[in-house]
UniProtKB/TrEMBL annotation:
Biological source species: Oceanicola granulosus (strain ATCC BAA-861 / DSM 15982 / KCTC 12143 / HTCC2516)
GO molecular function, one term: uroporphyrinogen decarboxylase activity
Record GO biological process: protoporphyrinogen IX biosynthetic process from glutamate
Subunit structure: Homodimer.
UniProt-annotated binding residues for substrate: R24, Q25, A26, G27, R28, D74, Y151, S206, H322
SUPFAM superfamilies listed in its UniProt record: UROD/MetE-like
Assigned protein family: Belongs to the uroporphyrinogen decarboxylase family.
Catalysis: reaction(s): uroporphyrinogen III + 4 H(+) = coproporphyrinogen III + 4 CO2
Keyword vocabulary terms for this entry: Cytoplasm, Decarboxylase, Lyase, Porphyrin biosynthesis
Record-given protein name: Uroporphyrinogen decarboxylase
Primary subcellular site in the record, as a coarse category: cytoplasm
Length: 342
C-alpha cells in the first residue's frame, strides 16, 4: 500500500479524513502566484520556466498543506507542441491558430515530435519530485482529446463548443483524424510526465458535458479509455483520475468503462447522488461548488461537512467541482481545510 493519502484513496482505501487538493490551486487568487507570474513575464513563459513553474506548484502546498500538488502547466501546451500558435489575451483567455480542414491537419506535427517543445514541463516534474514534502503526491495532467480539440478547432474557449460540433458533423474525417492525433500525443505527453516522476495523472475533459447521445461514448469515453489503457500498459499500477465534467447521470459506470481509479465529479450532481450511484465504482473526487471559496461563511462549512459525510463510506478525495476562481479568498481555503480535517 502506498503511504501518501492521495495515493491510498486512489487505491480504493476508505480513509477517516479524505485527502484534499483544489483544481487550479496555483493561480491568480494567490498574491505569491501573481508575483511569480509577473517575474516570468507572462503565463506561457511561466509554464515553460521549470524553476518558476515548480515554484508556483509549491506555493499552495506551503500556504495550505494540501495532500497533493498538481504540475503547473496548461492543457493548451499540447496543441502548441503539435504546431499551433498559442497566445493569451489579457482579460480574455487563450487564442490559437486553428485546425478546420485537411490542410491544417497535414501541417501538424506527429505525436512523437512533441517532446522538444514540452521538455521544460518534464523538467518541472523532475524538480518537483526533489522539492515536494514526502507526504504530498504529485499529479500530472493533460486535457482529454475532445476538450483539447474544441480549442484547436475554435481557436479559443467557446460557451457551447459550437465550432467543434460543426466540424464533427460537416467533416467527420478531419475531426476524427484530429482526435486521433491528440489521443496519441496525449499518451506520449502523460507517459513522459510519469517517467519524470508524476505519481498519478488526471485527464481534464472540461467540455465532455456538451457531447450528446452516442458522441459521449465515442468522443469522451472511448478516447479516455484508450489513453488510460496505453498508460497502464507502459506504467503498470499508475492511478488515473478522469474528469468528464458535466457527465451528469452518465457518470454512472464510468470508472469501469474508462478504466480510471477515480472519477472527478463536478458540482452539477449532488454528493448524495454520486455517493450512491458513482462511488460504488471506485474513488470519487469532488465536489464543492467553487463559489463557496468566494462567499465563505457558514454555508461553506456546512456544505463541506455534508460532502465529506456523503462520501465517507467509500474512497474519496476532497476537491471543488471545478477550478478555484481568481476572486476566491485564500482565507476561505483555510476554513475549507479546517472543515474537512476538522
Ligand atoms: O492568467 C493566468 O495566470 C492564467 C490562468 C491560468 C492558469 C493558472 C490558465 C489559463 N491556466 C492555468 C493553469 C492550469 N490550467 C492548470 C495548472 C494547475 C492547477 O490546477 O493549479 C491546469 C490543471 C489547467 C487546466 C486547464 N486549462 C483546463 C481544464 C480544467 C478546467 O478549468 O476546466 C482548461 C479548459 C484550460 C484552458 C485554459 N487555460 C487558461 C484559461 C483561462 C483556460 C480556459 C479558457 C476558456 O475556456 O475560456
Amino acid at each position: 500500500m502506498p503511504n501518501k493519502l492521495l495515493l491510498r484513496a486512489l487505491a480504493g482505501e476508505t480513509l477517516p479524513t479524505p485527502p484534499i487538493w483544489l483544481m487550479r490551486q496555483a493561480g491568480r487568487y494567490l498574491p505569491e502566484y501573481r508575483a511569480t507570474r509577473a517575474q516570468a513575464g507572462d503565463f506561457l513563459s511561466l509554464c515553460y520556466n521549470p524553476e518558476l513553474a515548480a515554484e508556483v506548484t509549491l506555493q499552495p502546498i506551503r500556504r495550505f498543506g494540501f495532500d497533493a500538488a498538481i504540475l503547473f502547466a496548461d492543457i493548451l501546451l499540447v496543441p502548441q507542441a503539435l504546431g499551433l500558435d498559442l497566445w493569451f489575451v489579457t482579460g480574455e483567455g487563450p487564442r490559437l491558430s486553428t485546425v478546420t480542414g485537411p490542410d491544417d491537419l497535414a501541417r501538424l506535427r506527429g505525436p512523437d515530435d512533441i517532446h522538444d517543445r514540452l521538455a521544460p514541463v518534464y523538467e518541472t516534474v523532475r524538480r518537483l519530485t526533489e522539492s515536494l514534502p514526502r507526504e504530498v503526491a504529485l499529479i500530472g495532467f493533460a486535457g482529454a482529446p475532445w476538450t483539447v480539440a474544441t480549442y484547436m478547432i475554435a481557436g479559443r474557449g467557446t460557451p457551447d463548443q459550437g465550432p467543434a460540433h460543426a466540424l464533427k458533423s460537416t467533416d467527420r474525417a478531419t475531426f476524427d483524424a484530429l482526435m486521433e492525433r491528440i489521443t496519441l500525443a496525449t499518451i506520449e505527453y502523460l507517459s513522459a510526465q510519469v517517467e519524470a516522476g508524476a505519481e498519478c495523472v488526471k485527464l481534464f475533459d472540461s467540455w465532455a458535458g456538451s457531447l450528446e447521445g452516442d458522441d459521449f461514448e465515442t468522443y469522451a469515453v472511448a478516447p479516455a479509455a484508450r489513453i488510460v489503457a496505453a498508460l497502464k500498459a507502459r506504467h503498470p499500477g499508475l492511478p488515473v483520475i478522469a474528469f468528464p465534467r458535466g457527465a451528469d447521470s452518465r457518470y454512472v459506470g464510468l470508472h469501469e468503462r474508462i478504466g480510471a481509479e477515480c472519477m472527478a465529479i463536478d458540482n452539477g450532481v449532488s454528493a448524495r447522488w454520486a455517493a450512491e450511484h458513482v462511488q460504488p465504482g471506485g474513488c470519487v473526487q469532488g465536489n464543492l461548488a467553487p463559489t463557496h471559496m468566494v462567499t465563505g461563511g457558514a454555508a461553506l462549512v456546512e456544505e463541506t461537512r455534508a460532502i465529506v459525510e456523503a462520501f465517507s463510506r467509500g474512497p474519496h478525495v476532497f476537491n471543488l467541482g471545478h477550478g478555484i476562481t481568481p476572486d476566491a479568498d485564500p482565507d476561505n481555503v483555510h476554513r475549507l481545510i479546517e472543515a474537512v480535517r476538522g
